[in-house]
Automatic annotation (TrEMBL):
GO terms for molecular function: malonyl-CoA decarboxylase activity. This is Malonyl-CoA decarboxylase. InterPro entries: Malonyl_CoA_deC, Malonyl_CoA_deC_C, Malonyl_CoA_deC_C_sf, MCD_N, MCD_N_sf. It holds the Pfam family MCD_N. Transmembrane segments: none annotated. Residues 166-400 form the Malonyl-CoA decarboxylase C-terminal domain. Residues 82-163 form the Malonyl-CoA decarboxylase N-terminal domain. PANTHER family: MALONYL-COA DECARBOXYLASE, MITOCHONDRIAL, PTHR28641. One of its GO terms (biological process) is fatty acid biosynthetic process. It comes from Paracoccus solventivorans.
Amino acid sequence: MGRLSFFTGMMSGLFERVPRRGAARRGRASGDGLTELALALLSAQGEVSGTRLAGEILDEYREMDPAGRAAFFGWMAGALDVDPAAIIAAAERYRDAPDRRSYMALAEAAEPRRQELLRRLNQAPGATLDLVRMRLDLLRLLPDHPGLAALDVDFRHLFRSWFNRGFLVLRPIDWHTPANILEKIVEYEAVHAIDDWSDLQRRVMPQDRRCFAFFHPSMLEEPLIFVEVALCRGIPSSVQDLLAENRVAMDDEDTDTAVFYSISNCQEGLRGISFGNSLIKQVVAELHQELPQLRTFVTLSPIPGLMGHLRAQDDESARKLVAAAEAGDRDAIAALSDKLRTHAAIWLAEEKRPGGAPADPVARFHLGNGAELHLIHALADVSAQGLAQSASAMVSYLYDLDRVEANHEAFATQNTVVMSKDIRALLSRGKQTGKTKE
């Protein structure tokens, strides 16, 4: 923790945030006034004037209602768009004389001015978080304003550079982490809700528990994504066991397995910017270095689409499982546990999106990272959410460090679902019984 505190203090100093507003703040800008400020920022040459204008624009934007923000986005999408004729002309010049000058002209013509506006807005202290929130506003407007889609492409293009893995900071989260960040961990937990501070303490304080988060140097108090890890002996079959109030913590030397049981993205404005792959790989490296006796790295993951899949089946066991889950009848689910595991295997391994990738989003994430579809567990999450999304089933994806790269290549190039013998046996059983029909 000493090294972490030193690093945090150093980075906070480097990215110190100064007040954005002066004592005599200018009056509220209209929509036209905001576009005038934006054009002034695009023409500003001085760093000081650019920082001041960027801060004023972001302040005024924050005061706008959704209609005003939609209008501002519409202006950005239209007035600051590319000129297709200029792109064609520049491309033809580059084709005829491919030199440095013609390439620079083509690159300049192909980049819309709104990208430069976003870059200049990022000059203001604390602006990176403001721009992430601005994109969230845009995402919420897109269903009713599809003409703004090109602007979202620009946000994603810039964010992929600004939030490149090389800029991210991995920090452990424990009971000594500042309270404001712990509060955000509670708020952003998206897989297994954290009920209160005692619940949080059970997840980050015991010696056989770990939590890690990625931060960006300009957003040191806002986690981007975090993962909760349980150190165990063997692969657990239920999240209830992992989160039990009265469980006894294990000593380091008694553990051989690291279980990633919750991964939560924190910034909806960064949707589509992937951090999970890098997070898991770095956490595996950190844990392997700290605890070399760990041999197995595995998830205990939700299956969010399974209940929908069950409802779509013309199958007696599927109907019984849906009814049992809706009634919270654990005994009935237990009696059908083999059927549930078989249905889950079919959903995860055989149901596809157009293009051949698995239909299940969590499966796409872990298989794309190079994991193996390893084990399916019934009655693994009997919470209301677990019953509602998967009739209590969960799945373990295995990160075999010797196979991750090969698995990733197979999935990336051929949508190959690498799976264990246990999963293959479930799929074979499903075929023999006509997809679990009784």
